[in-house]
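User: I'm new to structure prediction. If I give you an amino acid sequence, what do you actually give back? Let's try with this one:
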Amino acid sequence: MSYLPLFVAVPLGAAFLTPIISRFWKQWADWITVLSSGFLMLLSLYMIRLADQTIIYNAGGWQPVDGIPIGITMVADGLTVIMLLIVNVIGFLVTIYSINYMNHYTEKGKFYTLFLLMMTGLNGVVISGDLFNLFVFLEITAIASYALVAYGVGAEELEASFKYQVLGGTASAVILLGIAIFYQLTGTLNLADAARVFAERGMSPSVLFVAVLFLAGFSLKAALMPFHAWLPDAHPSAPAPISAMLSGVVIKVLGVYTLIRLFFNVFDINAIPAVRTVFLSLGTLSMLAGAYLALGQKDFKRMLAYSSISQIGYVVFAFGLGTRLGYLGGLLHLMNHAAFKSLLFLNSGAVVYQTDNRDMEQMGGLARSMPVTGITSLTGAFSISGIPPLAGFWSKIIIVYAAVQAGQYVLAGLAIVASIVTLAYYLKMQRLVFFGELARAYEKIREVPVLMCAAMIILAVMSACLGVLLLPGIRNIILEPAVNVIAGGIQYAQMVLGG
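Assistant: Good question. You get back a string of structure tokens that encode the predicted 3D arrangement of the chain. For your 499 residues, that looks like this:
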């Protein structure tokens, strides 16, 4: 249990150390960030062996009194382990990619400081056992993200960051109001203790009002339609490593994870069946509308941004089905999307790195000059489109089958339609960017540096092979503990508090 604070302490310490050291030795900023993110990745991999346990760390040694928690609590269970893997594996690969990519920008030390603060917040949200500290870490992540979106300090970046900040701040205000009422109703901010209180007292109109506030606030953080307006501007404008983190990690942790934790483990979704209907509705709308809007885009990164909305729709849709198979498919797609969407944003960054252009209609034939980028992009595009036997196929087919099993035949059909549209716009992207004749303006370009290639290759392998997580031996170690946490509902309180 003593390992849990390291997920916050290591990146936070590195974030404050980096600007000091980099003032004297600039190259040390790279080393500090790589070493700290590498340590976090190894620690998250180590946590897999503990996925079937519930680990509690009471900060400052404050033990519960009469079973009631009175201090800051950090909690790790099967769901936490999956989210820590997503945050820290993707974070490490993005760090490797950034070593060369961020040479196009000034003040890499400040970039790394903000990046490490974002990692601090993401890890903190995942392991927080109480609602107030979850909110504090959420704000650390959000504020760092606002600055990183604007890091290029151009007009487009500043406008996108401002929109992101306004809508993100609105979401935070709604969430904070919900927390205030939540505390007034329960007398506690500890998630497990609150789950116990709700189980004893049942649902009331005030509790339902809090649930609505949380649903709106965290849906905006997840960029679910119709709460998505900030994402299509923020993700294209940010540097490619940050676009990868925003789509691959941030919207999952701040949005999807918090929705799952609160509505399944605290409120008891079985007591508020309308929430499942909302999940299904928002998920289906996001799947279809995001795919349709991506189909008409010319901007490479903007197309990927709308694609993120569509794919997050699959995840929320899966959890709205309310079955163990749906939870399994949703969790696997959550991991798959972290891999192939991060990969595709890094691919777009490699293209921009060499061409200084995001307009797909002005490109063509780049696979000849950039074979690693072209092949890995094709792998990510086919995986996200659900082409067998790549990883995305397995998560999508499970989600569709779970929908059929739950009697949602029309919605299962719509999920298939959204996947067909996804394949259409990714084939369009491949044709415009990587196939065809090489544009004369790009005849002299070459492949990106080796560290950028390495990050893309590793993510491409993950995008192709994460389906192995469904093998019984591996599934029981990684996915099933998380499914048990979600399906167990408010048994989360018993796992954390005992009794």
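You can read the tokens as a compact description of the fold. Here is one thing that stands out. The chain has one domain: 6-497.
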